[in-house]
């Protein structure tokens, strides 16, 4: 790219501003920064910019207020929101204020560049479309029949595009919208809107843009739920095209699938509800025990009082386990987590973990067998995560085992993987529950597991650790026969080890 592209970054965090400047300057963009909305607005009024990156939460003047004023001053600027509070609601609100897209904090350089490049591409498309309409006497039907570069670009967009002329006849579309709306065959230019679109609600939304009260160059946004061909949520962005005399030329509709965003928002709500439920029960129990003890309702028998305090302590321990698992789960979910990978021989980790946990199986009289070759090939992994991985698996093999059962740990190398099996002779998992055991907070319910303590996050953490090391995990189980987890971790090839040792 050349220096003709001018970008303004408005954020009250110096690290974000300078980070964006470095990333974008490396792509030969001309970049300026501002610390708040007022300073950014002054810069916009002093010189032209092609694209703005705007934080929502800032002192003096917030992002939404600034975007409103920028849009009134120069409606052609592409505005992209930077926010640490990315939800469907904030995205919709930002788009209603003129934002083209948004990027949630924290973000990688690739994510930032992808959004910025899409925005600049949209700006170029707008100018190209306007030039084509002027050259072809502003007739959108002629533009639709023109085999031009604009068609090639529009056809490659992931968002659905529908353009109708002033008579509400189809002028332009792309393959994405055909799949998104399940349109029959290849749409024909010139057909009426109602004949093309099978969804009445969408026809109503687009038709509203033809109202004479629609503001010039204003992007109107509405959300719509579709049930066919598959349930999905679309964000419909409408832009009315008018000439200099204010005469309507047509309407451009951009359809973006936000089903994933809605699902993420729903999952977040479910996650918060689950955490609240898991915390409420033990806290209520602890409060009950302590209230009975402090009020004297439990009596003066030392044994009874000690029993109650022991129960409160056990519930407190389960809460600490839950908080610890939650922190580990969130850490593994974070994209910017830094792992201290090193060349490891898992023999010592497996033997140490098994020896440490043997005491937990003492009440059940469990037998342990650790079957390891004399020497094992190395893997590249984070030691602390490997320790947690095998602690969780071996601990589960103990908790869900039967009396006088057996825990077997076997390690065998293959061509490309180190195969570690942790097997038990316990209660097992039925076929109905087996596909869900790696889900967050999922616990197999039954008479044999009802009183077994656990947070429901252990296996979720196991899977995330394995996948973060480019491995995979498999499970096989039979009810009342036992369960076997097989972890496959990629080997560090001998040639790679040699190179590292000789650096």
What features would you describe in this structure?
With 503 residues, the protein is an alpha/beta fold. The protein has four domains: 6-126, Rossmann fold (3-Layer(aba) Sandwich); 138-257, Beta-Lactamase (2-Layer Sandwich); 268-332, Signal transduction histidine kinase, dimerisation/phosphotransfer (DHp) domain (Helix Hairpins, Orthogonal Bundle), CATH 1.10.287; 341-495, Histidine kinase-like ATPase, C-terminal domain (Heat Shock Protein 90), CATH 3.30.565. Helix content is 44%, strand content 22%. It contains 16 helices and 17 strands. The strands form four sheets. A five-stranded parallel beta sheet has the order 2-1-3-4-5, with helices on both faces. α13 packs parallel to α14 (383-399). The longest helix is centred in the middle third of the chain and has 37 residues, at 259-295. 27% of the residues are buried. Residues 494-503 have low confidence and may be disordered.
């Amino acid at each position: 790219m050349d220096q003709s592209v001018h970008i303004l970054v408005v954020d009250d965090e110096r690290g974000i501003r300078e980070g964006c400047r470095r990333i974008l300057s490396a792509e030969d963009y001309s970049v300026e920064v501002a610390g708040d909305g007022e300073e950014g607005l002054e810069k916009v009024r002093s010189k032209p910019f092609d694209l703005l990156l705007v934080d929502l939460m800032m002192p003096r003047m917030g992002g939404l207020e600034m975007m409103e004023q920028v849009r009134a001053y120069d409606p052609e600027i592409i505005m992209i929101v930077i926010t640490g509070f990315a939800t469907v609601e904030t995205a919709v609100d930002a788009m209603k204020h003129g934002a083209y897209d948004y990027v949630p904090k924290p973000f990688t350089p690739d994510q930032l560049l992808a959004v910025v490049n899409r925005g600049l591409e949209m700006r170029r498309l707008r100018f190209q479309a306007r030039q084509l309409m002027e050259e072809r006497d502003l007739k959108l039907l002629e533009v639709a029949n023109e085999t031009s570069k604009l068609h090639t670009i529009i056809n490659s967009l992931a968002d659905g595009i529908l353009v109708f002329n002033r008579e509400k006849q189809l002028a332009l579309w792309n393959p994405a919208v055909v799949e998104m709306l399940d349109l029959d065959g290849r749409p024909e230019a010139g057909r009426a809107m109602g004949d093309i679109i099978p969804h009445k609600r969408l026809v109503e939304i687009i038709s509203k843009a033809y109202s004479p009260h629609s503001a010039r160059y204003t992007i109107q946004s509405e959300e719509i739920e579709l049930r066919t061909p598959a349930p999905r949520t679309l964000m419909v962005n409408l832009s009315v095209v008018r000439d200099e005399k204010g005469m309507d030329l047509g309407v451009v509709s951009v359809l973006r699938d936000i089903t994933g965003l809605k699902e993420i928002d729903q999952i977040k709500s479910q996650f918060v509800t689950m955490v609240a439920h898991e915390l409420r029960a033990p806290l209520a129990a602890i409060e009950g025990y302590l209230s009975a003890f402090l009020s004297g309702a439990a009596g003066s028998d030392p044994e009874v009082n000690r029993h109650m305090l022991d129960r409160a302590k056990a519930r407190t321990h389960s809460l600490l386990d839950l908080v610890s698992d939650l922190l580990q789960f969130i850490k593994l979910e974070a994209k910017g987590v830094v792992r201290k990978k090193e060349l490891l021989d898992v023999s010592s980790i497996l033997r140490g973990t098994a020896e440490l946990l043997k005491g937990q199986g003492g009440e059940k009289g469990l037998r342990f067998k650790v079957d390891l070759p004399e020497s094992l090939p190395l893997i590249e992994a984070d030691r602390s995560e490997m320790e947690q991985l095998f602690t969780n698996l071996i601990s589960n093999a103990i908790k869900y085992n039967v009396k006088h059962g057996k825990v077997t740990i076997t390690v065998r190398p293959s061509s490309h993987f180190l195969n570690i099996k942790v097997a038990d002779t316990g209660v097992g998992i039925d076929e109905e529950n087996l596909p869900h055991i790696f889900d967050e907070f999922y616990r197999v319910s039954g008479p044999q597991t009802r009183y077994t303590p656990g947070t429901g996050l252990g296996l979720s953490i196991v899977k995330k650790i394995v996948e973060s090391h480019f491995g995979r995990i498999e499970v096989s189980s039979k009810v009342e026969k036992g369960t076997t987890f097989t972890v496959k971790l990629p080997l560090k090839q001998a040639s790679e080890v040699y190179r590292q040792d000789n650096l």
